[in-house]
Design goal:
Strand order of the largest sheet: 1-2
Structural class: mainly alpha
Distance between the termini: 32 Å
Largest sheet: 2 strands, antiparallel
Order of helices and strands: HHHHHHHHHHHHEEHHHH
Helix content: 55-70%
Shape: globular
Oligomer: single chain
Number of helices: 16
Amino acid sequence: MLTTGSIALGAEKYLRIISVIFIFLTVVLSIFSARAKYHISIFIAYLILLATVTLNYFISGANLFDMTEFMSNRGIGTWICLGLIFVSYDDKRYKFFQKFVFFSILVISVMTIYNLIDFGVGRWRGQALSKYQIYAVNMVWLVPYMFLLLKNKNKFKVLRPLVLFMGIILALICQTRSFLIIYFITLVFDFFNTKKKTSYIVVMAIGFAGLSYLVLNTQVFSSSLELLINRGTDDTRTEQLAVFISQLNFFEVITGGGFFKSYRFGNSQWTAVDNQWLFLLWWGGLVPVLCYFYLGVVVPVKMVLRKGLSYETKVECFVLIIWVLGLTGLAIFSTMSVDFFFFIISIILGRVLYKFSSGKQ
């Protein structure tokens, strides 16, 4: 499940198909078992979203038995997987989920270190992305959650710097400015939720100095830093968004352009855009956007405005806020899809939706 890209590529597709089928079964069972745990508006929003996407899928003429289409980010499969929001109400199950996230970070870290020894980082960004993109994309959503959560876990608190270090190193290797921004925002949140702020600043200064020394004096990382600096402030999205928006059709924005919708950019037809809200609006229409906006933005914001939130709930809401920002283009490669990180985010979202429904803090 740590793989990415078209599920039609490689033997990995069979593992992904099987795992997603199990997720489908889990979602169906959870919807029935969780019917008294969530506010009715959450069920309505999810079911309307799923029904609209399904109708769009069939009207577009997409093939129900083509797994590449079915499990694409425009396919029904992705939005069935969103139903993982309904598995988060059980406290013991959620504690196990937290341990699973921690274990996943350790596994990705080990795989990253192995590839660094075996392959290095490559001579240009494309080579780095071919090896490390999937690790970096998953870590940018796992690391902030676990780094912040371990703050109050005395037994594992010492591992916080390691968790953050691996995330930052992967962002550096892949030369993804947006991921580095997310880690910086995470540190800002952590700072404002720390009592001993002076000590925190000292520790962060020492950590930054150590990381800088390692990067500047290690050829593997210094080359990545040089490539990142060379990218500078290059704007890689404004032109694409301008062209994309110029081709939007008002009627299709309401109803959705359908599964096979594309637009002209340069000399080729494009089927994606670096803003997942616009992307969903473009192919799926206004209804799915409003439903997901309610689940992913409105409810978490209402939770944030509540008084007396527990630290864990604050962390969950924070992760969802950066996820929402990520979908606007802050986090490259992050999409609603049958990818590991989307499952993790959906479960965290489900926990916030459950707390909102039950009145828990």
